[in-house]
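wait is this the right file?? whatever heres the structure
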């Protein structure tokens, strides 16, 4: 690929700048809000309400298993929504994915618990969690395509960061709502109150209905991008996009999957695992089996979530910063540097995450850990909104980018919380093995980035140029 390759077509965008930014940002914010609401509940209340095994660690593992199960449904959602997105357009597919996620999340909010219907409650929770994963499998790629296919020349990575911003914004909204509810119905000794366990935890899930209505209103105003309209007019739409993607674009499919691997592992370690580790008591509660108990840092839930939210602010800021940087120096060069930093960060877990005797010093170290980890998260997650779509031509772009993104979710996210919890148990409360796990994921991503090629200058409207760049 040469620097003379045109960056974007000169045609007038099908959607206004404000509409593109709003539609790509609002939808993913809602989707990630729904996902984070589940992630928080999976740590805070689901072990007691849906998996009362009598052993705290086993209950948490079961809760994390349902959390990770959604990742298995995401590639299925990627194939289904990608098929319709590449055949019939991005707009209708995005509306369908948003509705699916919203309905599943709302139904979780009215689900009876184990006390009411026994293990059927856990089964229904699993089904709705799979529906969430199915929806998110089609959501991200469509939002990224709306942003990048409508981006001005030279600003594709910047526009690609707007759907990525949905992750930190959704996290802040979901966890802030949980905090407000927790403040209004506090329990004793930092534990959840009876009112919170009975009905308070349902409010964030029911609230998603309001957000879905807003998202639908925005997305129904979208117009198909010029890139898709051009393919549709020329008759180049594939009858079976999945087959064409696997047959003709297997190399970028594999590379894209491993590009996302370290990002996913880091993402779920910084959210789900750290919340579980940070709020676990330092000593076994009275009556608990001291031999099987795995100690944590002993922070109160409210305190630790506030620390996470501070870190997530850096996540959002660095997501935005990563776009202009990736447009200026290239996606690959930026990500090689950031991934190298992620590897080092993983090897430093033992420095930041062990109790130091002094509570304030421990708190300062953990806060620094969260800020640095979420900072790296923003820098690695931001460029993916442009990088993955740039690997595929228009007629399989939805399918290809969605499959790469969501297969990576199985390898990097579906098992990350459970593996981290197991490694934490093996380490008897020392998280150094969890950090090694992150570093190894970073090594695999770094290898993929070294093998891959720069896509900054490829023209998304020139499918021949996209395919040629992917083969080099």
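ok assuming it is, sequence goes like this
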């Amino acid at each position: 690929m040469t620097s003379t390759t045109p960056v974007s077509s000169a045609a007038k965008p099908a959607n206004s700048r404000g509409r593109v930014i709003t539609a790509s940002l609002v939808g993913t914010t809602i989707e990630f809000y729904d996902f984070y609401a589940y992630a928080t509940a999976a740590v805070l209340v689901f072990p007691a309400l849906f998996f009362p095994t009598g052993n705290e660690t086993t209950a948490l593992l079961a809760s994390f298993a349902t959390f990770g199960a959604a990742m298995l449904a995401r590639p299925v959602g990627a194939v289904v929504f990608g098929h319709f997105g590449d055949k019939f357009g991005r707009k209708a597919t995005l509306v369908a994915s948003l509705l699916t996620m919203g309905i599943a999340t709302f139904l979780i909010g009215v689900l009876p618990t184990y006390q009411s219907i026994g293990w059927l409650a856990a089964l229904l929770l699993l089904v709705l969690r799979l529906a969430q994963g199915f929806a998110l499998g089609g959501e991200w790629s469509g939002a990224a395509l709306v942003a990048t296919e409508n981006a001005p020349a030279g600003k594709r990575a910047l526009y690609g960061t707007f759907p990525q911003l949905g992750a930190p914004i959704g996290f802040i909204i979901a966890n802030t709502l949980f905090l407000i509810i927790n403040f209004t119905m506090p329990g004793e000794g930092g534990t959840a109150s009876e009112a919170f366990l009975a009905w308070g935890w349902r409010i964030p899930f029911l609230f998603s209905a309001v957000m879905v209505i807003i998202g639908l209103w925005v997305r129904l105003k979208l117009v198909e991008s010029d890139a898709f309209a051009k393919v549709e007019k020329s008759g180049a739409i594939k009858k079976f996009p999945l087959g064409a993607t696997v047959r003709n674009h297997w190399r970028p499919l594999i590379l894209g999957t491993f590009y996302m691997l370290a990002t996913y592992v880091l993402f779920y370690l910084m959210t789900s695992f750290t919340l579980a580790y940070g709020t676990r008591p330092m000593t076994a509660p009275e009556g608990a089996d001291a031999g099987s108990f795995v100690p944590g840092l002993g922070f109160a839930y409210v305190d630790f979530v506030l620390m996470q939210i501070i870190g997530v602010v850096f996540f959002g800021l660095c997501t935005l910063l990563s776009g202009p940087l990736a447009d200026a120096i290239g996606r690959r060069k930026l990500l090689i540097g950031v991934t190298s930093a992620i590897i080092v960060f993983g090897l430093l877990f033992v420095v930041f995450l062990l109790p130091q005797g002094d509570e304030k010093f421990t708190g300062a170290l953990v806060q620094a850990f969260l800020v640095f980890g979420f900072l790296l998260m923003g820098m690695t997650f931001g460029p993916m909104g442009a990088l993955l779509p740039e690997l595929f031509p228009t007629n399989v772009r939805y399918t290809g980018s969605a499959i790469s993104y969501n297969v990576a979710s199985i390898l990097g996210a579906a098992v990350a919380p459970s593996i981290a919890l197991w490694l934490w148990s093996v380490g008897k409360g020392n998280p150094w093995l969890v950090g090694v796990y992150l570093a190894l994921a970073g090594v695999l991503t770094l290898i993929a980035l070294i093998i891959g090629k720069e896509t900054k200058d490829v023209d998304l409207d020139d499918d021949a140029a996209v395919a040629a760049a992917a083969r080099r």
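The two ends are 8 Å apart (CA to CA). so i think its the right one actually
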